[in-house]
C-alpha cells in the first residue's frame, strides 16, 4: 500500500487582526509545538498574505491519512476549535496529496536550491 503525504492549507480570516492574534496564541500556548510533536506531522507553519491583513495561512502537512485522522480525533482539536471561536474566525480549506513522481525535470530549470 502506497502512503500518500497530505498537505492542508487553511486560510483563517477574521476582523481587527484576530487571525494574527489566533496564530500568536496558538504558538504562545504551546499548541503548535504539541502538534509538531505528534506522530506523522511533517510541518505546521503560519504565513501572512501580503495583500490581506485579516487572513493567516496555515500549511499543515502529514505523512498519511491515518496520522491526520489521529490528529483530528485528538483533544488538540478541541483546543484549536476553542481558540478559533474565541477570535471569531472563518476558514477556507485546500487539500493536496503528494505526487510520488517528484518534480519534473522541465520544472527543475525554474528552481534555485
What's the quick description here?
Helix content is 35%, strand content 27%.
User: Element order, helices and strands?
Assistant: EHHEEHHEH
Number of domains: 1
Tell me about the largest β-sheet: 4 strands, antiparallel
The average pLDDT is 93
- Cα end-to-end separation: 32 Å
Structural class: alpha+beta
Give the fraction of residues assigned to helices.
Answer: 25-40%
Walkthrough of the structure:
This protein is an alpha+beta fold and 113 residues long. The chain has a single domain (6-108), classed as Alpha-Beta Plaits. It has helices spanning 18-28, 31-36, 65-72, 76-86, 105-108; strands spanning 6-13, 41-47, 55-62, 90-97. A four-stranded antiparallel beta sheet has the order 2-3-1-4. Strand 2 (41-47) and strand 3 form a beta hairpin. The chain is globular, with a radius of gyration of 16 Å. The relative contact order is 0.28. The model has no long low-confidence stretch (mean pLDDT 93).
Amino acid at each position: 500500500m502506497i502512503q500518500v503525504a497530505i498537505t492542508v492549507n487553511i486560510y483563517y480570516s477574521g476582523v481587527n487582526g484576530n487571525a494574527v492574534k489566533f496564530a500568536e496564541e496558538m504558538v504562545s500556548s504551546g499548541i503548535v509545538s504539541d502538534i509538531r510533536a505528534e506522530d506523522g506531522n511533517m510541518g505546521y507553519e503560519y504565513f501572512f498574505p501580503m495583500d490581506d491583513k485579516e487572513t493567516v495561512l496555515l500549511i499543515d502537512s502529514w505523512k498519511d491519512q491515518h496520522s491526520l485522522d489521529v490528529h483530528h480525533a485528538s483533544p488538540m482539536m478541541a483546543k484549536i476549535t476553542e481558540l478559533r471561536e474565541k477570535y471569531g474566525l472563518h476558514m477556507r480549506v485546500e487539500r493536496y496529496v503528494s505526487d510520488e513522481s517528484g518534480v519534473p525535470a522541465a520544472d527543475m530549470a525554474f528552481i534555485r536550491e
